[in-house]
Design brief:
single chain, 288 residues, alpha+beta, Arylamine N-acetyltransferase fold, eight-stranded antiparallel sheet, five-stranded antiparallel sheet, globular
């Protein structure tokens, strides 16, 4: 019996095609100047990205999502100022950071209880000056800046507090991200350390955007991180969180949700808003 470990071929090509990114246009869109890699520069880029691009599933609901390839994502985000979900955010931010000289890994995770959820969340791990940092630009309540990928690491920035914990996932190690609520620490998601390739994001996106029971197929979710306020809009509610203040939550109609997207200046055309209205009314099964 041969107990030797097989060695896979070494990657020699840029599988992610980051050279296709128009870095100048990306930086102009988020309002940040190019600087050499540093923790300060990384924090600035991450926060600017999260504040510039919404987290949303609009294109999934409209059946107009063109995929998560870098060319498609940058045309949507950089070209139109639109947002999207984790696979898109992770693809774009990782490419920008690599072009700026950072060492980057894309990883997949599970939202909620690991045994009951698929690997349908994408995060980015950045290694800087020997330290690994978790970047998470594509979550509904995203980190504003990366947090050290160390067991027990905590970060409270602008009143938003998070914690990282090392966890066991099957036979390997994983990392869980928690956010602090009044009732204590709430699990957001966990990711493993398996290598991730472009095809993995394609598969994850395909499942998330087409599986009939996917929540992205059945309800609107849009989140926007503004200074001092985080707003989440669904087709049935709006939630506004401000650090240190009670959460505001109220039920709304589909038409009120569409009006809120206009108020938040989400860059959707009137045709997209009209089709989105029809889709949500159909899902809700009523005219509201």
């Amino acid at each position: 019996m041969n107990d030797s470990v097989a060695t896979l071929p070494v990657e020699t090509a840029d599988l992610w095609g980051v050279d296709r990114l128009d870095l100048d246009a990306y930086l102009a869109r988020i309002g940040v100047a190019a600087r050499p890699p540093s923790r300060e520069a990384l924090d600035e880029i991450h926060e600017a990205h999260v504040r510039t691009f919404t987290f949303d599933n609009v294109d999934v609901l409209l059946d107009t999502h063109r995929g998560v390839d870098l060319d498609v994502v940058q045309a949507k985000f950089v070209g139109r100022g639109r947002g999207g979900y984790c696979f898109e955010h992770g693809t774009l931010l990782a490419a920008a950071l690599e072009r700026l000289g950072y060492t980057v890994e894309r990883r997949l995770g599970r939202v909620g209880d690991p045994p009951t959820t698929g690997r349908t969340h994408c995060v980015v791990v950045v290694t800087l000056d020997g330290q690994r940092l978790l970047a998470d630009p594509g979550f509904g309540l995203s980190l504003l800046r990366p947090i050290p990928l160390e067991d027990g690491a905590q970060d409270d920035y602008g009143g938003w507090a998070y914690q990282v914990r090392s966890v066991r996932l099957g036979s390997g190690r994983g990392w869980a991200l928690y956010r602090q609520r009044q009732s204590g620490w709430e699990l957001m998601h966990c990711h493993d350390e398996l290598p991730v390739y472009p095809s993995d994001l394609v598969v994850g996106h395909h499942f998330t955007s087409t599986y009939p029971e996917s929540h992205f197929r059945n309800a609107l979710i849009l989140a926007q991180h503004d200074p001092g306020r985080h707003t989440t809009v669904t087709d049935s509610s709006v939630t506004i969180r401000r650090p240190g203040q009670p959460t505001e939550h109220r039920e709304i109609s589909v038409l009120e949700a569409i009006d809120l997207l206009r108020e938040l200046a989400v860059p959707l055309t009137e045709d997209e808003l009209l089709r989105l209205t029809d889709k949500l009314l159909t899902l809700r099964g009523k005219d509201s």
